[in-house]
UniProtKB/TrEMBL annotation, chain A:
GO CC terms, sorted: plasma membrane
TM spans (from-to): 21-43, 63-81, 101-124, 255-275
Main localization (coarse): membrane
Subcellular location: Membrane
Record's bilayer topology term: Multi-pass membrane protein
UniProt keywords, alphabetically: Cell adhesion, Disulfide bond, Glycoprotein, Membrane, Transmembrane, Transmembrane helix
Homology family: Belongs to the PRPH2/ROM1 family.
Listed Gene3D superfamilies: Tetraspanin (1.10.1450.10)
A biological-process GO annotation: visual perception
Protein name in UniProt: Peripherin-2
Stored PROSITE patterns: RDS_ROM1
Annotated InterPro entries: Peripherin/rom-1, Peripherin/rom-1_CS, Peripherin_LEL, Tetraspanin/Peripherin, Tetraspanin_EC2_sf
Automatic annotation (TrEMBL), chain B:
Gene Ontology BP, a term: visual perception
Membrane-spanning segments: 20-41, 62-81, 101-121, 255-275
Protein name: Peripherin-2
Record CDD domains: peripherin_like_LEL (cd03162)
Protein family: Belongs to the PRPH2/ROM1 family.
Gene: PRPH2
PROSITE patterns found in the cross-reference section: RDS_ROM1
Database matches in SUPFAM superfamilies: Tetraspanin
Glycosyltransferase in keyword set: no
InterPro entries with a match to the protein in the record: Peripherin/rom-1, Peripherin/rom-1_CS, Peripherin_LEL, Tetraspanin/Peripherin, Tetraspanin_EC2_sf
Keywords on record: Cell adhesion, Disulfide bond, Glycoprotein, Membrane, Transmembrane, Transmembrane helix
Pfam short name (any one): Tetraspanin
Length: 342, 343
């Protein structure tokens, strides 16, 4: 008893083939979109790899690029088969490949499910990488003369300006790091010497932040230095002042950006999975409808199409017995070989 | 003697009609492009209208939008006529309108050329608008409590950050105005009172710039205050310090941005004009070749197409004569009316 059989006449078959051909072209476009999303994601990771200590995992974008290319290829082939399906001569050369092709499509769908899952799960890895990378970035902010780190200041400044954030978790992270290079500190000055000595590690710490933390929306000119000292500035209370500098941390800002990007890509891949499944079902119906024509010579005869030749349970038990026989044949061959040797 | 005559048989006429139809669809896309460029330019002007004192001229983007819409509609009409030109019955209903249509197209092409020219010339008024607007913008930087100007600070800061510029001509413009609001100045402090007293207008001037002038590429943390005082900062010489703040003036930066945009739009409009001229010529050939078939009943007969029915000189003298006769006609009518009223 076939699974979900449908009766077809010539008109229905033609309509199915045309509809399926159009659907395959949409799937090719979806494949191209996945490919370009993968490239975009890769570029975005590269742009800020300094913030992530050059340690970020490119697994997800690489997978997306691969999957996009595969999707394009498979769907273009499927579209070609659909286009030729209405001509019995052309279709007969594709017929033997169809079973393998459908199996390939099935495993490709499984791969797509995996990719979509990864898009949601790898966000944790991105969060951890960002947390570590940003803490290093703040530490290396002052090293504008060290090769390999000389652009850290610029990158961090531009990130803070672009993402409207300050520090790792909040602006106080800047109070714990020396972000002014020793080259610009007058070590002969008493104030400087006191500050450096008052610190266990001999660092020049202050309650100030870089200019890139400043919020342009503040009504007053930016207060960067002596942030916690109310008396240093006229009419200033650091506890109630909200608009002076960005209050959000860069970890949160960057993570929300990347997580929304990855979630949107994940949702789009789910949509692509649904599209691919519909394509597979349609192709299965088309191929079975063309195989079971009552009179092969008469193109206008009736035929029947189905999703599975037997019911779901029977197909499953068939598969299991096939796997078991494969295993048993190996064992038998193994048994034969030692006998042949002795 | 026709200008640039070409002999046509049926095959050639069909090919011509198909090519011109294809070109008309490209021309429709070009019209859409001109329309979207006009919209984009209008939006960009609106975004920064605060910096131009809300005084900027929207003449050019409005003209581009209008030209884009007209181009789309006449090209769609032209495409339809070309499509129908191969069917004599359908073509017969378009035929009487074609002469007016072609004259209109020629006029439209001239207008497109004028638009392209304007794109290059409007840079000059823009320079003045920007100079004045930016000067006022900087003056109102501190007025974050005045309704209507409270966002000037944010707009100016964001602009300086985005365009990598500082001040009108350079960063010293900030030294000449008070950009810290009086609300944040402690008037009981002697230092503040001295500074205000030393100034004729009673303004609190200082050799400092806002944070948005800072250059992130500078190797040292940004020096915004006491910029001309070398001793105020360790190892600092304001004459040689290049990377501390942005050196470029915002008028220069904005002008080059808008100037570049207008030049690109002007170049594209010139290309669109050439395309339009091409389709007009093609349509004239289609029209003339279908108008004088050797044997009107036989669609496969030979015909001749031309650009102008007579030579350029003769066509010109014809037009002049027509205009003179129109002028004489109205004079004669006036004379007759006068005679009638008198008698």
């Amino acid at each position: 008893m076939p699974f979900m059989p449908v009766k077809f006449n010539l008109q229905k078959r033609v309509k199915l083939a045309q509809g399926l051909w159009m659907l395959y072209w949409f799937s090719v476009i979806a494949g191209i979109l996945i490919f370009s999303l993968g490239i975009f994601f890769k570029i975005e990771l590269r742009k800020r790899s300094e913030m992530m200590d050059n340690n970020e995992s490119h697994l997800v974008p690489n997978l997306l690029i691969l999957v996009g290319l595969l999707a394009c290829g498979l769907n273009a082939f499927g579209g070609k088969v659909c286009h030729d399906s209405l001509d019995p001569i052309k279709f007969s050369k594709w017929k033997p490949m169809l079973k393998t092709y459908l199996l390939l499509c099935c495993s490709f769908n499984v791969l797509l499910v995996l990719v979509s899952l990864l898009c949601f799960l790898m966000q944790f890895s991105v969060y951890l990488t960002l947390a570590e990378g940003l803490s290093y970035a703040i530490r290396f902010y002052k090293d504008t003369d060290t090769p390999g780190r000389c652009f850290m200041k610029r990158t961090l400044d531009m990130t803070q300006i672009e993402f409207h954030c300050c520090g790792n978790n909040n602006f106080r992270d800047w109070f714990e790091v020396q972000w002014i290079s020793n080259r610009y500190l007058d070590m002969s000055n008493d104030v400087v010497k006191d500050r450096v000595l008052s610190n266990v590690e001999g660092k020049y710490l202050m309650d100030s932040v870089p200019f890139s933390c400043c919020n342009p929306g503040s009504p007053r000119p930016c207060i960067q230095h002596h942030l916690t000292n109310n008396s240093a500035h006229y009419d200033y209370d650091h506890r109630t002042e909200e608009l002076n500098i960005w209050t959000r941390g860069c970890l949160e800002a960057l993570f929300s950006y990347y997580s929304s990007l990855m979630s949107s890509i994940g949702v789009f891949v789910l949509f692509a999975i649904i599209l691919e499944s519909v394509d597979m079902a349609g192709l299965k119906y088309l191929s079975t409808a063309l195989e079971t024509m009552a009179e092969p010579e008469n193109p206008e005869c009736e035929s029947e199409g189905w999703l599975l030749e037997k019911g779901v349970k029977e197909t499953f038990s068939d598969l299991l017995t096939k796997l078991k026989t494969l295993g048993r044949t190996n064992q038998v061959e193994g048994g034969d070989a030692p006998e042949a040797n002795t | 003697m026709a200008l640039l005559p070409v002999k046509f048989d049926l095959k050639k006429r069909v090919k011509l009609a198909q090519t011109v139809w294809f070109m008309y669809w490209f021309a429709v896309l070009a019209g859409v492009l001109v329309l979207s460029m006009g919209l984009f330019f209008k939006i960009e002007l609106r975004k920064r209208s605060e910096l131009m004192d809300n005084n900027e001229s929207h003449f050019l983007p409005n003209l581009l939008i209008l030209m884009g819409l007209i181009a789309c509609s006449i090209n769609v009409f032209g495409g339809k006529v070309c499509y129908d030109s191969l069917d004599p019955e359908k073509f017969a209903k378009w035929k009487p309108m074609l002469k007016t249509y072609l004259v209109f197209c020629v006029g439209f092409n001239a207008l497109l050329l004028v638009t392209a020219l304007l794109c290059f010339l409007m840079r000059i008024p823009m320079q003045f608008t920007l100079a004045e607007g930016l000067r006022n913008g900087m003056r109102y930087y501190k007025d974050t409590d005045t309704p209507g100007r409270c966002y000037m600070k944010r707009t100016l800061d964001l602009m300086q950050i985005e365009f990598h510029c500082c001040g009108n001509d350079n960063y010293r413009d900030w030294f000449e105005i008070q950009w810290v609001s009086n609300r944040y100045l402690d008037f009981s402090s002697k230092e503040v009172r001295d500074r205000i007293g030393s100034n004729v207008d009673g303004q609190y001037l200082m050799d400092g710039v806002p944070f948005s002038c800072c250059n992130p590429s500078s190797p040292r943390p940004c020096i915004q205050a006491q910029m001309t005082n070398n001793s105020a900062h360790y190892s600092y010489d304001h004459y040689t310090e290049d990377l501390n703040v942005w050196k470029r003036g915002c008028r220069d930066a904005l002008l080059s941005y808008y100037g570049g945009m207008m030049s690109t739009i002007g170049a594209l409009v010139i290309l669109v004009t050439m395309l339009e001229a091409g389709v007009t010529v093609g349509m004239q050939y289609v029209h003339s070749s279908l108008s004088n078939l050797a044997n009107p009943e036989d669609p496969e007969s030979e015909s001749e197409g031309w650009l102008l029915e007579k030579t350029v000189k003769e066509t010109f003298t014809d037009i002049m004569d027509k205009m003179k006769s129109m002028g004489k006609g109205s004079k004669v009518e006036e004379g007759e009316a006068a005679v009638e009223t008198v008698s």
